[in-house]
């Protein structure tokens, strides 16, 4: 298989480094593009469209075809828009604890009002339209199963997230008209989105996909990619297989 792995917010493409190595060890091709405004391309005023375009350009420049396109967290909204642009290159979409906005919604719309208000306060205080992630929120929401040392190590790479892509209302009519196979990979200890039917990753976000394959696993939002990459690679294969 050929995997293209799209990371989420408050991280960069290095999030996938160990998983890419495991997928390659198993004989697959695996790519983890850095997208606009993140990692070495960090830019607070990046747009959602620029992020999507950078992923599309990466896939087409390498002439990748028949791909399993994986989106983690915010990356779910990215692969939705990428799929609109290059559906003929995609074999299956895999949403890994990912946000799946409905047409006309933003990623931020997937959070309860109190969390949206907290983000608004962080944006206002930032001075550059970013959302710096306070460590206590990161610890409890993103790396809640990690050791204290690993949690702090992962947090060191969490640059303030450009806010505009999270707040943008997305036109997703074309995505919801596509007939592409979809899977949702849900880790049951992931608390980055509030647990429960209304806001949680599963069933709230996964349920937006209509027909899909559900794969579940043990882990949280970020820790597994660092601590158990072989396990994550196996779960991605389960989600991607025919």
UniProtKB/TrEMBL annotation:
<dbReference type="InterPro" id="IPR000073">
    <property type="entry name" value="AB_hydrolase_1"/>
</dbReference>
<dbReference type="InterPro" id="IPR045889">
    <property type="entry name" value="MES/HNL"/>
</dbReference>
<protein>
    <submittedName>
        <fullName>Alpha/beta fold hydrolase</fullName>
    </submittedName>
</protein>
<feature type="domain" description="AB hydrolase-1">
    <location>
        <begin position="3"/>
        <end position="149"/>
    </location>
</feature>
<dbReference type="Pfam" id="PF12697">
    <property type="entry name" value="Abhydrolase_6"/>
</dbReference>
<dbReference type="InterPro" id="IPR029058">
    <property type="entry name" value="AB_hydrolase_fold"/>
</dbReference>
<keyword id="KW-0378">Hydrolase</keyword>
<dbReference type="GO" id="GO:0016787">
    <property type="term" value="F:hydrolase activity"/>
</dbReference>
């Amino acid at each position: 298989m050929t995997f293209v792995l799209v990371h989420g917010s408050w991280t960069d493409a290095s999030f996938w480094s160990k998983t890419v190595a495991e997928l390659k060890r198993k004989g697959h091709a695996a790519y983890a593009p850095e997208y606009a405004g993140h990692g070495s391309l960090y830019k607070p005023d990046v747009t959602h469209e620029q992020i999507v375009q950078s992923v599309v350009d990466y896939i087409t420049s390498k002439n990748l075809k028949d791909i399993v396109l994986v989106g983690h967290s915010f990356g779910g909204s990215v692969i939705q828009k990428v799929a609109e642009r290059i559906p003929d290159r995609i074999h299956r979409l895999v949403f890994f604890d990912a946000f799946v906005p409905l047409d006309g919604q933003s990623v931020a719309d997937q959070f309860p009002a109190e969390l949206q208000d907290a983000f608004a306060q962080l944006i206002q205080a930032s001075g550059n339209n970013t959302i710096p992630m306070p460590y206590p929120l990161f610890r409890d929401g993103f790396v809640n199963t990690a050791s204290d040392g690993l949690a702090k190590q992962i947090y060191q790479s969490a640059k303030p997230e450009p806010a505009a892509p999270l707040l943008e209302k997305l036109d997703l009519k074309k995505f919801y008209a596509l007939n592409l196979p979809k899977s949702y990979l849900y880790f049951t200890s992931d608390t980055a989105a509030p647990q429960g039917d209304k806001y949680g990753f599963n069933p709230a976000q996964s349920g937006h996909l209509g027909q899909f394959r559900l794969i579940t696993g043990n882990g949280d939002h970020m820790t597994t990619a660092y601590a158990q990459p072989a396990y994550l690679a196996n779960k991605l294969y389960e989600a991607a297989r025919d």
